[in-house]
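Supplementary Methods. Inverse-folding protocol.

Structures were first reduced to a C-alpha cell string of length 292. This string, shown here, constituted the complete conditioning input.
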C-alpha cells in the first residue's frame, strides 16, 4: 500500500514519473483512469487551494470525492483521530487526503495500513504535494534544467511546512537553497542564511515568498505587517529587471508578501503554480491508486 506522507517516501524514479505524468496531463486531459475509485478528504485546517485542487484533480480522473467536515464530525465529540479514520476506512475508500495541525498525524494514519493516505499539509513540517507542484513549475520554467539553480526562500520560514518540504525536495533535486528571514523567523539549518534579500539578489534564479504569519509568534518583532513589508515584500524596487522566477504557495498577502504590480509581472508564477497543482495532484493520485 503506497502513501504520500512526505516526499522522502518517494523514490527518484517515482518523482521523475510524477513530473512526466503531470506534464502529460497538462498537455492532454487523460481518460477516466480512476473512475472506480473513491476518495475522502479530511481537512482539520482551513484550505482553499489544496482541497479544491485535490477535488478537481480527482474528478478529472473520474474518481468520486466525499468531503468530511471535521468540525461536524465525531472528533468534536471526543473520538480520536485514529478511530475516526478507522470508521472511514470501514466504508472502503481507496484513499484519504488529510490536513492536520500535528506533524505526525498523516504518518500515524499511514502506519495503520487501512487505505492510502495522502498528506495535504501537516503542522509546520510537511506539505509534500506543494513541494512537488513547485518542483514541477520550476522544471517546466527552466526546460528541465534545475540542477545548480539557486532558490531563495523568503519570510516566515520556521512556521512554514511549505518551506520545510521544499527544502528537503529541492536540495535532493540538486538546487541550491538559501534562506532569507529575520532571525526569529529562521529555523535551525546548515543552509546559507541572510537577513535581507538585497545581500544575495544577484545570486538567485528563483524567489519563493512565504505568507507572513506574525500571529504565530508569541513575541512579535514587527509592530505590524506594513513594517514587515518594508523589509521583505517582493516588489519591482527589489527585483529591478533581473530574470528571477517568483513563486508563492498562497494565500498571498498583497503588498506584504508580494506587491500588486509584481503579481501582474510575467516573472511571477503564482497562478501557474495553482494550475500546475491540479496536474501534479492528478499524477500523485495515479501513482498511489493505480500504479502502486
Amino acid at each position: 500500500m503506497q502513501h504520500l506522507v512526505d516526499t522522502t517516501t518517494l523514490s527518484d524514479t517515482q518523482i521523475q514519473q510524477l513530473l512526466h505524468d503531470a506534464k502529460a496531463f497538462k498537455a492532454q486531459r487523460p481518460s477516466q483512469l480512476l473512475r472506480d475509485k473513491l476518495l475522502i478528504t479530511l481537512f482539520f485546517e482551513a484550505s482553499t487551494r489544496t482541497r479544491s485542487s485535490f477535488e478537481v484533480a480527482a474528478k478529472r480522473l473520474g474518481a468520486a470525492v466525499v468531503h468530511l467536515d471535521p468540525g461536524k464530525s465525531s472528533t468534536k465529540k471526543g473520538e480520536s483521530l485514529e478511530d475516526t479514520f478507522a470508521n472511514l476506512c470501514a466504508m472502503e475508500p481507496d484513499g484519504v487526503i488529510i490536513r492536520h495541525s500535528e506533524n505526525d498525524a498523516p504518518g500515524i494514519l499511514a502506519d495503520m495500513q487501512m487505505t492510502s493516505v495522502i498528506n495535504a499539509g501537516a503542522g509546520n513540517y510537511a506539505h509534500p504535494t506543494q513541494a512537488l507542484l513547485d518542483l514541477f513549475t520550476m522544471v517546466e520554467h527552466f526546460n528541465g534544467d534545475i540542477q545548480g539553480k539557486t532558490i531563495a526562500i523568503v519570510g516566515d520560514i520556521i512556521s512554514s511546512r511549505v518551506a520545510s518540504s521544499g527544502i528537503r525536495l529541492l536540495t535532493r533535486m540538486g538546487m541550491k537553497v538559501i534562506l532569507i528571514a529575520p532571525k526569529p523567523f529562521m529555523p535551525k539549518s546548515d543552509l546559507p542564511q541572510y537577513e535581507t534579500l538585497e545581500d544575495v539578489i544577484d545570486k538567485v534564479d528563483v524567489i519563493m515568498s512565504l505568507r507572513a504569519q506574525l500571529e504565530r509568534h508569541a513575541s512579535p518583532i514587527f509592530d505590524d505587517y506594513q513594517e514587515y513589508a518594508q523589509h521583505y515584500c517582493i516588489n519591482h524596487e527589489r527585483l529591478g529587471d533581473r530574470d528571477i522566477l517568483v513563486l508563492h504557495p498562497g494565500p498571498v498577502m498583497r503588498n506584504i508578501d508580494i506587491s500588486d504590480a509584481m503579481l501582474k509581472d510575467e516573472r511571477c508564477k503564482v497562478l501557474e503554480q495553482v494550475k500546475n497543482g491540479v496536474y501534479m495532484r492528478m499524477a500523485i493520485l495515479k501513482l498511489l491508486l493505480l500504479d502502486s
